[in-house]
Give the backbone structure.
Amino acid sequence: MDMAAQIHKTRKAFPDLYHTMHWLSPGATSAAEALRRELLDEISTHTQARWEFAGTKLYTHALSPGCALCGQGTWSCLFINGICNARCFYCPSEQKDPGPPMTSSIEFELPKDYADYVKKFGIRGVAFSGGEPMISFDRITRFLDLLGRDAPDLSHIWMYTNGILVTTDRLKILRDNGLKEIRFDLSAVDYALDNLKKAVGIIPIVTVEIPAIPEDLERTKPLLKTLADLGVNYLNLHQIRCTHFNLPKLIQRGYTFLHGPGVAVLETELTALELIQYSLDNNINLPINYCAFTYRQQFQKAAARKRNANLIKNGWEDITPTGFIRTMTLSGDLSSVNNISKYLETKGKKGTDWTTDKEGITIPGSLWPNGLDLSGLTLTVKYHATALRAAPSMRYPNIPIQLNQDRQVIIEKDNQQQSIQIAGPKIPGFAKKFLYPQEPHPNQAESGLDLELEEKICSFENFSPGLAPYY
């Protein structure tokens, strides 16, 4: 989406407050990008600095197991409630809903239903969030107990908390029920450490997870060594994002806002990078992970799409790296189509691995007819998004997924995306770039696709690499 379209979309999303927001102007963009480049250049001189997930996630030393599972798309965040006993200015929601537990807009009153969901969708890690989970402590222990008994493939379970209701006894109960990691939002308690200290030595992994608050930069710098000395295992820094709920408070603080798929705050990114640079320059042995909004926007959404797609895609369809279901149909010259049919009969089973209809032959990338003449054909590519529902929305085709005898969920498959047609001479370029980008293909052009068409395909096939542009 180009910048004009982004601005139009944001105006519609925040019609009442848009003109009161301090947006990064084109004239100020160069200075902001130069400052970011300077920070990144300094960070890159340290061997402990690393990038993962298409260069959208910067971290030092190591990632926590939970963050690794998040990036791989094999985790589920269960919002155990929607109420909180803190009033953080950056909180994205109102926090007045006591429950029930929910993930991906699906309510799970019963721990057994959630455990079956975890198994069905191939989830390897579970995080308890809120609200404030400790307010619903008995609910957490019931879910932990059931997951431990009914979901043996789970490798990591963690929980987010502001720490206000943490006690030593509660921490031991959580540990004994299988909690592997606890994450404290210290900024919610003015960086008080008392309850954090209780967790070190009880919960196997103790993490601090806070937004990178610009006003707190000078307070946070000395905190880094303190956390390392206390035995904290990881520090996660978030970029603040805007919602209808927190936006008035963010405006009051004079932040600079960035247009994008979601509106984020410029100063929080620069603060996070400065903290990472400070930790590396001062040899502080505390792994730090910067969770940028561009990472969350892309990888967490892709993860949800992939989990759904794995359960409903046909054998002749593919799942792209970004989680869309790709359907490829070759049609046109009859002799060429017949040659492809004969080729496919030696590679897979018709109706299972590939299929035909009046539109042509539909095949997955794994059966791509390398070496055959495709010049007389047209390749039609269509991408489908998926969404998990408690009940059909009646907008798109849907497939019921049975979790157990009493509970099912719905996966909808969006059929509204416009088909993309690629003429025969350009088909090899598409295959080279999107199906087998790492493999050499004789006599195939690098691309040959029109720039506009290639960009459209890229939006479904590839992640946008690196940190988000500022303008």
Notes: Residues 440-445 have pLDDT under 50 and may be disordered. DSSP finds 14 helices and 25 strands in the chain. Residues 293-312 form the longest helix (20 residues).
